[in-house]
Amino acid sequence: MEAQAQGLLEAEPLQGRDEDAVASADFSSMLSEEEKQELKAELVQLEDEITTLRQVLSAKERHLVEIKQKLGMNLMNELKQNFSKSWHDMQTTTAYKKTHETLSHAGQKATAAFSNVGTAISKKFGDMRNSPTFKSFEERVETTVTSLKTKVGGTNHSGGSFEEVLSSTAHASAQSSASGPRRAEEELQC
């Protein structure tokens, strides 16, 4: 019996087919004429109250719009404020804080890794420059440049930078062009 009473006293709202069953049921035959009149009066009163509440709500919404206009508030400002508040609320969540910490930590590790790679590459270049193969290559280039300077530019044996060698070679080439092809051939035979 308790289960039956429980079923009758369910606090759940009517849904779907329950509403259809209630809508199709005719309870008017179960009510006395006096109860029908009371329910009709109550129905009229509820409809009037709903209409009044809608009117009051509409008036309050108009008043709200007027106040916002006087304060210079518009839809865009409200959206900005709502966005700022939502962004702030999101930043204060635990999930955001954990994600931020994780990404920050990952960024620090990546920075350290790139720094280590750069250091390793610099060390390798330094080791390569000090290797016997590179030294041999460097000596050959110096010998070739000195030889070219001697043949093209005369007896000037002072070292000099690569740019100086190029400049003197260009100068010598210009001089040999000015004095004719014979002069250049004579210098090369010496």
Brief summary of the model shown:
This protein has helices spanning 2-8, 17-24, 33-70, 75-91, 94-129, 132-153, 162-178, 181-189.
Q: What do you see in this structure?
A:
By secondary structure, this protein is mainly alpha-helical. Helices cover 81% and strands 0% of the residues. The protein is built from 8 helices and no strands. It is rod-shaped. The termini are far apart. 1% of the residues are buried.
Report low-confidence residues grouped into runs of 5 or more.
Answer: 1-6
**Oligomeric form:** single chain
Helical segment count: 8
Beta-strand segment tally: 0
Task: Name the average pLDDT.
Answer: 77
Distance between the termini: 131 Å
Q: Give the overall silhouette.
A: rod-shaped
CA gyration radius, whole angstroms: 49 Å
Strand content: under 5%
Let me know the largest β-sheet.
none
List the secondary-structure elements in sequence, H or E: HHHHHHHH
Structural class: mainly alpha
| Proportion of helical residues | over 70%
